Amino acid sequence: MAEDQNKNVASRNVPPFFGDAQVDLETAKRLDKFLEQRRRVLNLEKRLEIVDDAISVVEDLYITKIGESGDPLEGLRTLQRELKERVDAGANNYAGKGGPDWLREDDLEFHAEMIRAFTGLRDLHTGYVPPPPFDKAVAFLPFEVEACWEGGERKYIVSNVYKKLPWYNLPKDFERGVEVIRWGEDPMAKAVEMSGDKTSGANAATKLSLGLDRMTAVPLARARCPLDWGVKLTYRTMPGEGQAEEKETEEPVPWYVATIQSEDPEVGRRNETWRALGQGLDDGREAVRQLRRTVHQQEGQAWLPERAKPADRKLVSNVRADKVLEMPEHCEASIVTPYAGDNARSGEEYGYIRIRSFKVANHRSYVRKFARLVAQMPLNGIILDVRDNPGGLILAAERLLQIFTPEYIKPQEMVFRNTGLSRKVIKLVPEYRWRGPDQAPKRPGRGKPRHYSKPAPISSEILCNNVGQHYYGPVVLITNALSYSATELFAAGFKKYEIGKVLGTEKKTGGGRSNVVTRSTLWKNFEHAKRAFGTLKDAAAAQGEKPQDWLREPKWPLKLERPLDTDLRVTIRGVLSDGGKLHNGGVTRDFPHRMTRADVLEDNKDLLKTAADLLKELKKERSPCQLRETSCYKEGDTIVARIKTGNIDILKLFLDQENKARVTAHVANGVHPYEIRGWDAGKGKLLRLEGYSDDNGTTPVATRKIRLQ
């Protein structure tokens, strides 16, 4: 088996999912210069329109009833009242001197107040997006910091230093591995806590993790600009030949701002709009991920830098024969040999897949590539790592579950708020009406009013089961507090279908299992609906007919009937818990792991060892199965298949969705030939295999789907 694997591995290099750089580092500006550049400044009337629109969205469209979480309406109504007073008093287009900071001529403080108003929701999905150039800008420092545990204390270690950026040269002894002790005048622990309080983290662990992350990279679309143009640090140097010393940077390390140049999938052709409606994403973390990916590419590093090589990593390269494997988007895959202890290798190989994001362009291609990838992994087990994954396309995340289990996947159901505005939005957007039965909220009738619509899935149940199982060994999923949104739906399904165990570096994930939509996406749907209405109306007039009764001119549901310079992201659908309340908690881990210095500096050395130990235990509980075709072809109306099995007692073969098996056989380990006669090419397009481990043949332990050409 090792011999076969060696044919399918190559030397480690930069993973192919980098593609073209999406962040323009050449034009990055120092923060103070970025804020000085010319831009459109919102006048008082436009600011008032934005606040009015935000209030209507939060009151009637946001999934959580105000009062169950933070209340941004108080701050928004204060802004609304003061802006109205200024407008009614005949103030000119730009505010003059005096009054609150956000009323001055520059609108930076207005944007900051809007962002602050939404922070209290503790929902990373919902927030205010300022206008260009802030909407696609990320402020960052030329290094990264990660937390780890040493001697029962939480410490903050520099995990990466950007050396090829020409703007600023850090001290020579400021290198990977130094410990940051103070941030400005504050001890590091206090600085992280204060930074976390300014974020929208749903739980304590998420606030701390997000607070630390935003101390070195700030997405200006979702967070306030740093207050100072630079940061002074106190750090403890690496011991080296002498004693470790505490040092302070001679001058503040400057913030620089880079702009994300790539076009968002939400913008573009109409047939891509459904993707924007099916997102579960923390867009702030996604912007930071794109920035760091580009910087690491420029630095000549793999996304996980090959540091001290604690585990032999081999990059998977081939699918079969001489076809090169195309890596799924935002994934890195390798075969690892973790340490077993005392710096000795275990000798056992495991698959390792890091999924950085589910924000994919094509879910069909993504799932197909992922299925081919896992089929090459060792049966000893796979380690799926979704730490720091901000989410993305919900359908892409939920479709991956079928690859690891014989169970029939039922995608997570979600609900809308039951309000007049949500009913109008659902009526406006076809994807909301067609996604499931009785999706639209019903008007409250007599008796107890219904706060939410009936649950219905976002993802297609057919697509969540059409690829089938491709991996038959044990699986461990690694999460942390920054695993968010669509990633949490994947983690929840992973636990629900008992695919494996969840190993968490924090107790829970981020707490955002929901669907987000932007005002601009709704506006695009409205414009499309208007064009479609006009086309149908003109076609009826040309035929000399009246429009059909069902044809109604679409109405824009929000107060302001035009696009705005700014944008709003709002959680429109959420998951209900068993008690009928909105589920805003994260996915709880099965086993804990505290990140160590070796994890931060030596490519997750201890974390991989813990995951490998879990895989060994899972392997003892349930031996890996094997079920795949070595060949499958047709001869006239006969299907000829050779099926390889392992740890399976009974094998059943079905055509398409037939309930009666065409073949039922007791099998031993090995390759078995079968023929199915009477195949109708017009009707039969799928050969299903089901393997059972006992004579009862009730619950399959392995399944396989083979497309018939």
UniProtKB/TrEMBL annotation:
Highest taxon listed in the record's lineage: Bacteria
One Pfam family from the record: Peptidase_S41
Ranges in a coiled coil: none
Domain Tail specific protease: from-to ranges: 350-513
Protein name: Tail specific protease domain-containing protein
Organism: Belnapia mucosa
